Amino acid sequence: MTIESEVQSLRQVSMFRDIDPAKLKLLAFTSDRLSYDKGDVLFHQHEISDSTYVIVEGKVEVWLSAGQERIKVTELGEGAMVGEMGVLIDQPRSATIVAGSHVVALKIAREVFFDLLRQFPQMSLAVMRDLARRLDATNAKLLAVTR
Amino acid sequence: MAKIDKSFFRYVWRNSRREQITILAVVLASLPLYFWSLDLPKSIVNDAIQGRAFKNGSATIKAFKIVLTLPDFLGGQSYEIFRGLDLERVTYLFALSMVFFVLVLINGGFKWLINLQKGVMGERMLRRLRFDLVRQLTWFAPEEIRGMKPAEAASMINNEVEPIGVFIGDAFVQPAFLGTQALTALAYILVQSVWLGIAAGGIVAVQGVIIPILRREQIRLGKRRQIASRQLAGRIGEIVESSPAIRAHATDLYERSEIGSRLGSLFFIRLDLYNRKFAVKFLNNLLAQLTPFFFYTVGGYLALKGRLDVGQLVAVIAAYRDLPPPVKELIDWDQQRNDVTVKYEQIIEQFDVDQPEEGEDLAAPDAIEHCPKITVDALSVVDPHGTPLVENVTFSIERPGHVTLAGPPGSGGEIVARALAHQITRWRGSIRLNGQDISRLRSISLATVMAYAGPEPVLFPSTIRDNVVYSLRRTPPQLSGPPLAKEEAKRRHEAERSGNPLEAPGDDWLDFAAAGVKDAVELDHRILELFALLGFDDDIYRLGLLGKIRAGDDENLGRQFIATREVIRKRLADEGKSRLVEPFDPQRYNSNSTIGENLLFGEPVGEVFAEHNLPSNPYVSKVIDADGLATRLATIGLRLAEMMLEMFAGVQAGNPLYERFSFLAAGDLPGFQEIVNRSRSRRRSETSADRDRLISLALSYIEPRHRLGLLDEPTRQAIVSARLRLREMIPQSLASSVEFYDPSAYCNAAPVRDNLLFGRVAYGIANAQEQVSAVMKSALADSGFLNTVYRIGLDYQIGSHGRLLFPRQRAAVDLARCLVKNPTILVLDDALRAFPAMEAKAILERLSDEFKHRLLITALPGLDDAVAFDLKIRFDKGRLVGIDKGGEAPAPTGEVNLSARDAAAEKRSAAPSQEGEASERPKPSEEPGQGSPDEARDDDGAVQRQVAE
């Protein structure tokens, strides 16, 4: 359970696939490795976005609440990144993330995330690419719905 | 209390008349004996040595016969009081000499007595003068005192006054003492020989006239020097205060050159002074040497001619020896007088302020308590440049509740708030509190009913508690009656003689009644209640846990702490959370501590065993060298350095990542690169300095936190066994520099928290800190220890200007200070700017509730619409533009106007976004405090627990 194994996990994140291993090591080193039991909450909807998480082990559930209702939107597994959107645009958390099993995650503090993006253009590019890909996917869904 | 006299001598005379007169009486009493001591040499030479008393052939004479002869109009009889002694010539000589010797002793004694009295009086007057100056300092209006430089005022009261104090002792006594002595000597010479008297008098006159003229220039230079050095002190003070700006703009060279040129001009003034001083000295010496020349020639001539006998000549020369020193000292005195009066006048001018009028007491404090009414009529305030800040503002507040002075920053509400609280005193128009003009109220009357918190809290370098209860130190305590301890009686006597207050600050000044409590313990509870209101109680708890107390010295308290430690441990076990804390065990490696902490297994006292000093400490290196541990650690350090170099390659120096994560600063990287290169080249050129640096690197490594896989089991074992040796073999001389952990004892050197946990919270488990904190807090509450921890938190030293606290903590301390005295009216002038928006709103809500039946007046930019109000007075560009009543106006939206807040708080860093409206933030309807990152985390912990259950 050293940094080397975490680097392996990070490489599975689509965003980081093309990034130099030494830089991924730095990313792992500058983040906190945290373990959660099933049912533990990574963060709550509406909280301040102070960090992003990369799931290294296990799976998490994404919950949305509106008024009294709570709906489980989706599940994410190893290699998923959560919470980065809120950090990027300085918005509160848009969903609640709950550990769906035993979970190990890397927590990257907001400032560190920005420092890394600033320092390494290829990391910024990777984030941009990922966001563009998601936007594209959303557009596709929208199109499917409106049709 | 009158203000200080402008005339130096009047001030001195008025305040030390009795002492001066006493000393003058002693001076007069000393004169007859002095005269006799001048005359005695004549008798010794003429009667004893030359034998004139034995001229008629008798072998003995009646010496020291004392006969009292009444004047003729009383009958003219003579009474023999002492029959005298029959003495031979030699015996007579010895007797006279003995008398002379005794007279010398007595005169010396008089001098000693006079000097002592002078000194004591001078010190008393100095004390009085300094006290009076400080008192006048407190009389200045707030507008005036802002223009004064603190360092200059301090320099004046502290240093410049010093020579004045010394001179005060001399002010009257010195001329009287020296003058009468000189006159006596001169009179004696005149009696002996008119010619010699005239010569001596002439030379003294020359001395007295010419030298002061020469010295006039010296005085002028002295004045210039005083002003220049005071400005220098002011500049040095400025440099200290502006050091962040100097650093930020790298203007140190400029500042230094400025100081350099000031020192230069000071030097030239002093040089001129020296030139003058030695010229005067030369002249003085010349005149002093010239007179004996006259006496030997003219006096000798007169003696040869028989117009003067030898005894007289000897006595005249002896008397003359006594003449120049007093004259010289008199001239010195005169110069000092000039100097000191100028200095005195200059200082007094700086402190020229009239005592504020005594002022009225509140006519009906109870009425204000029940129904505070404020009437503002045509209020106008201008700034020092004449720009109007508010113009012609008229409104009245008729009933209790929350009054908000609304408007964008700079629109005038804050100025009105300051005027209401009498923080501004120069205004036109009137402000009345229940009918009384507040500018005529006694300040203590106003302070009792009103509290004011401004944007910049004024805090003192003391504990949090001291800072809060400051507002309760208004009225002097009752002085204890007799009998007094000897020391105390002496202290009070001296205080009285120099016009100082009799109460000491150590006496109990705290007005418990004003705080609504009985004693210090209740007061602490009250303070904690207030801090809870201000959302500061968790901080206090945390500061308490970080506090260090000497519980180990108190067996009982120490035992209680250790018992609590067991309770916490058991509770963690009961809740299945034991894995969250790894306890300290003398026999086991603690993987959540650094290698250095594991090695020392104790708390360093002072610097000797501080982690960064361990590798170079000869004793430690001897211990770790013994079984090759040093080599293992150096290897870890080397691997660490290699990894850092690999990971941080390409990260620019100055990137905050270094500060946060790297074991080394950016500047150290090249040095470590060299060390790594050297060790790779296998040329065994590794120096001991290299090794110390590598070990030092290794000592801060924590495996579960840094996860670099550098520690193996044998190394852990080696560290534990080195730890045991380190403790066993420690030399006596080092034993006091470390307090080793002992599971059965309280460690004084370690913070309370470490003593309660006696272990480290594990890394890598989500929310471990929060969970442990919660368990610890509930265990403390159950064992009745929570309050102890809070009270330790109140003992936290906040540093100069409260620099050891965060801005919001400083603001909370200031607000608590306002609240603790239970004011009827609370004025907040941008006092919540240090809090995050949501927290500010929550605090304001709670305060508004607290002051439902009192009066809360707020001028808080950005929070105008945050909470409900009873009266809203709207300002724009210094004018009142509207008044809304709570019921009529649209209900407050509960929104926090972030841009207004940011505009108001120039000092705070820019808001995240321009359009930063409240809608972006967590919804205001959420739990208060969610806006703050700290509390969000706490909440996390709470929810975490709920879900787990």
Describe the structure.
- Chain A has 147 residues and is α+β, with helices and mostly antiparallel strands.
- Chain A has one domain (3-136): Jelly Rolls (Sandwich).
- Chain A has 5 helices and 8 strands.
- In chain A, helix 1 crosses helix 2 and helix 4 (110-119) packs across helix 5.
- Chain A is globular and about 45 Å long.
- The model of chain A has no long low-confidence stretch (mean pLDDT 86).
- Chain B is α/β, with parallel strands linked by helices and 949 residues long.
- Chain B contains 35 helices and 18 strands.
- Chain B is extended, with a radius of gyration of 41 Å.
- The interface between A and B is large, with 38 and 39 residues.
Topology:
The complex is a heterodimer of chains A (147) and B (949).
Chain A: H1 3-12, H2 21-29, E1 32-36, E2 41-43, E3 51-57, E4 60-66, E5 69-76, E6 81-82, H3 84-89, E7 96-99, E8 103-109, H4 110-119, H5 121-146
Antiparallel strand pairs in A: 1-8, 2-7, 3-6, 3-8, 4-5, 4-7
Helix pairs in contact in A: 1-2, 4-5
Chain B: H1 8-49, E1 60-63, E2 66-69, E3 78-82, E4 85-88, H2 89-137, H3 142-145, H4 150-170, H5 173-192, H6 194-241, H7 243-249, H8 252-304, H9 310-321, H10 324-350, H11 365-370, E5 374-382, E6 388-397, E7 401-406, H12 413-420, E8 428-433, E9 436-437, H13 443-449, E10 450-453, H14 464-469, H15 486-497, H16 512-515, H17 520-533, H18 537-546, H19 555-574, E11 581-583, H20 595-600, E12 602-604, H21 618-625, H22 629-647, H23 656-661, H24 669-680, H25 688-699, H26 703-706, H27 713-728, H28 732-735, E13 738-740, H29 752-757, E14 759-761, H30 768-782, H31 786-794, H32 807-820, E15 825-829, H33 837-850, E16 855-859, E17 871-876, E18 879-885, H34 898-904, H35 933-948
Parallel strand pairs in B: 7-16, 7-17, 10-15, 15-16
Antiparallel strand pairs in B: 1-4, 2-3, 5-6, 5-8, 8-9, 11-14, 12-13, 17-18
Helix pairs in contact in B: 1-2, 1-5, 1-9, 2-4, 4-6, 4-10, 5-6, 5-9, 5-10, 6-8, 6-10, 8-9, 17-32, 18-31, 19-30, 21-27, 22-24, 22-25
